[in-house]
Structures are given as structure tokens and as C-alpha cells.
Write a structure and sequence with these properties.
Length: 71
């Protein structure tokens, strides 16, 4: 387990208000320091992004856009 300090960033609720999505920001982490990635039924890959990028879910895409506008 890797414990990484973080601070909350934007949050959003799902369209039916059944879920609250919390996003956070942490200090810079080198890719080599991350634990090995193992694909599973929910996640197929881990990608590092350096600019606003369209993601699978609109709420995640919006959080990324907000981050790069804030940064």
C-alpha cells in the first residue's frame, strides 16, 4: 500500500444523484514509484496525461479540464 497525501479538488454527483465523485490532487509522483498496474474488470489501463484529455466519463473529463485550468 502506498500512502500519498492529497487534498480534495472538484467533486460532482452522478446524473441521478446516486453517487458522489470525489477528485483529489497530490504531490508529484514518478511513474516508477507507483505500484504495478494490474488490469481488472473495471480498469483496463493507467495513463499519465499532461494536458486536458477526453476520458470515458464526462465528469472525469470535466475534472481534468478544471485541473489544467487551475494549474
Amino acid at each position: 500500500t502506498v500512502l500519498i497525501p492529497f487534498k480534495p479538488f472538484p467533486y460532482a454527483s452522478s446524473s441521478n444523484n446516486a453517487r458522489i465523485l470525489l477528485f483529489s490532487i497530490t504531490t508529484s509522483i514518478h511513474e516508477r514509484d507507483l505500484p504495478p498496474f494490474r488490469p481488472n474488470a473495471e480498469v483496463s489501463e493507467r495513463v499519465l496525461i499532461w494536458e486536458p484529455t477526453e476520458l470515458c466519463f464526462t465528469t472525469h473529463t470535466e475534472a481534468v479540464r478544471q485541473y489544467f485550468n487551475w494549474k
